[in-house]
Amino acid sequence: MVKGLEEMQANIQKMILENKQEAKKAVNQVAEETKELLQRNIPVSTEAGKHLKDDVALSGFKMLSGGSVEKDILYKKEGWRARFPNNGTAKQSAQNFEEKTLNVMSRKALRIYAEALRRGL
């Protein structure tokens, strides 16, 4: 299994170097879908005011060493509040919405990257 993963990572790196447009398209698709799922998973407060799900945003593309490209999913201003419902407090149990999102999207991201590899190589 590890050999397959290493081979896929090598192919992704090759695609990034040879076909940046396809790599960016795949990274953007994964980032957008992850952002949307995270927003759906974030619990919404019944109180009026700002909601954490409205604070989720995507960064621009970042070029990393080796030619890799990535996008960050982040909270614009209210990110410090995310840890309370996600991790829990003395009076509130943990809801783990960030972990749930990553668990679902990690499998989906692999499928998206595999499709991009087929198209890009």
Write the layout of secondary structure elements.
Elements: H1 2-18, H2 20-41, E1 56-58, E2 62-63, E3 69-70, E4 73-75, H3 83-87, H4 97-120
Helix pairs in contact: 1-2, 1-4, 2-4
Structural class based on helices, strands and sheet pairing: mainly alpha
- Low-confidence segments: none
- Oligomeric grouping of the chains: single chain
Gross morphology is elongated
Tell how many strands the DSSP assignment holds: 4
Order of helices and strands: HHEEEEHH
Q: What fraction, in percent, of the residue positions are helical? A: 55-70%
What's the pLDDT, averaged over the residues? 84
Count of discrete alpha- or pi-helical segments spanning 4 or more residues: 4
Strand content: 5-15%
Ends: how far apart? 22 Å
Rg over alpha carbons: 17 Å
Instruction: Going across the biggest sheet, name each strand in turn.
Output: 1-4
Biggest sheet layout = 2 strands, antiparallel
